[in-house]
C-alpha cells in the first residue's frame, strides 16, 4: 500500500479505512460543517464588509495594479493568481490541520464556509425588496434596491 497519500492521523492505525467509509465520513462532516455555518449565521452573522469585502477588494486592487496591461491574457493571469492562490493556501492549511487533528480541519472548514457563504448580507435586502414588490410599492422597492447597491 502506498502511504504517501494517507493523512498522518490514519498512519497509526492497523487497518486503513475503506474509501467508501472515508467518503461517508467526509459527507457527514461536510453536512455538519454546513449546518454549523447556517446556525452560526443565524446567531451571529459575520461582518461581511470587514472580513470579506475589504480584503478581497485590496487583493483585487493589488492584482489590477500589477497585471492590468489592457489585454485579456493579463486578466486571466491575475485571476489565476488571485483565485488559485487563495484555493491553494486554503487547501494547504486544511491538509496541515487534518494531519494534526480532524477536529481542527473541521473547524477550518467551518471558518472557510462562514467566509464564503455569507447569505445574510443578501437575504435581508432581498426580503425587504420582495415584500415591497408584493404589496405593490414599487417606489419603496426601488429605494431599497438603491440603498442596497450603494
Please supply descriptive tags for the structure shown above:
mainly alpha, 150 residues, 7 helices
Explain the overall architecture:
- With 150 residues, this protein is mostly helical.
- It has two domains: 108 residues, no CATH class; 32 residues, no CATH class.
- 81% of the residues lie in helices and 0% in strands.
- It contains seven helices and no strands.
- Helix 3 crosses helix 4 and helix 6 runs antiparallel to helix 7.
- The mean pLDDT is 79.
Low-pLDDT parts are none
Question: Which range does the strand content fall in?
Answer: under 5%
**Helices and strands, in N-to-C order?**
HHHHHHH
The major β-sheet equals: none
Q: What share of the residues lie within helices?
A: over 70%
Task: Supply Rg.
Answer: 21 Å
Count of discrete structural domains: 2
Structural class: mainly alpha
What is the terminal separation in angstroms? 58 Å
Sum up the overall morphology in one term: flat
Task: Calculate the mean pLDDT score and round it.
Answer: 79
The number of distinct helices, counting runs of at least 4 residues, comes to: 7
Number of strands: 0
Amino acid at each position: 500500500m502506498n502511504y504517501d497519500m494517507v493523512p498522518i492521523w490514519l498512519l497509526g492505525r492497523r487497518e486503513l479505512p475503506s474509501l467508501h467509509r472515508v467518503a461517508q465520513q467526509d459527507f457527514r462532516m461536510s453536512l455538519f460543517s454546513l449546518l454549523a455555518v447556517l446556525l452560526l449565521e443565524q446567531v451571529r452573522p459575520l461582518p461581511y464588509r470587514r472580513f470579506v469585502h475589504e480584503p478581497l477588494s485590496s487583493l483585487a486592487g493589488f492584482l489590477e495594479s500589477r497585471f492590468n496591461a489592457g489585454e485579456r491574457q493579463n486578466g486571466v493571469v491575475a485571476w489565476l493568481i488571485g483565485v488559485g492562490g487563495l484555493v491553494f493556501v486554503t487547501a494547504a492549511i486544511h491538509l496541515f490541520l487534518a494531519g494534526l487533528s480532524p477536529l481542527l480541519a473541521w473547524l477550518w472548514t467551518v471558518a472557510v464556509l462562514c467566509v464564503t457563504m455569507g447569505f445574510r448580507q443578501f437575504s435581508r435586502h432581498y426580503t425587504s425588496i420582495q415584500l415591497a414588490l408584493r404589496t405593490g410599492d414599487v417606489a419603496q422597492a426601488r429605494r431599497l434596491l438603491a440603498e442596497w447597491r450603494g
